Amino acid sequence: MHIIKGSALAALILAAAPGVAMAQNAAGQNAARTPNAAPAQAGARGDGFGGGGGGHSKREFLETYDANKDGKVSKQEFTAKRAEDLKGMDLNENGAVNEQEYITEYTFRLDKALAEQRARQIRQAYVRFAVLDTNKDGILSPEEFNASGDRMFSRLDTTQDGFVDGSDTARSF
Asked: How far apart are CA 130 and CA 140, in angstroms?
């Protein structure tokens, strides 16, 4: 049994447990697919689990697999990273990854990405408020709020006809 290190990872597993249990119950008749499903647990694996990273673009592929950062990915680098990822997902260390291990790893990465996105958006909300609060009194008055909207409408109404429609040439909304 692994010792769980890191309260964030432990919290994730505890939070995911009801969903995992529901998924297992729904897939109960399909036990042949995951006969050795282990309970969700995690070892000390750096940021939580193995798992790939990045997305599906060429840039993200290079960022994920170019171990020596020479701007190209050799088959050896690719294979080594994939082996590392598989080992990181293999929570019960049996040499293979069952469905629960795979989904748990993905859930961890997704929750981490969503938490980072949320933190960025909240920081940006503070910046936007500071810009809108022109008199810096900590209160967004109707005048301050509407001034921003009026600027946006004027920018988008490039034909200056009092309507924003397909004839306007503004590229961003």
From this structure: 9
Per-residue pLDDT tens for 93-118?
A: 999 999 999 999 999 999 999 999 99
Instruction: Give the Cβ contact number of residue 106 at 10 Å.
Output: 14
Given CA atoms 88, 91, 97, 101 in this order, what sign does their dihedral have?
Answer: negative
The model carries a pTM of 0.54
Length of the chain in terms of residues written: 173
* Beta carbons of 13 and 42 less than 8 angstroms apart: yes
- For 62-128, the DSSP string reads HHHH-TT-SS---HHHHHHHHHHHHHHH-TT-SSS--HHHHHHHHHHHHHHHHHHHHHHHHHHHHHH
- Tokens found for residue 125: 């909300």
Q: What is the pLDDT of residues 11-41, one digit of tens each?
A: 444 444 444 443 333 333 333 333 333 333 3
Specify whether the CB–CB gap between 37 and 102 falls below 8 A. Answer: no
What's the distance, CA 45 to chain centroid?
Answer: 18
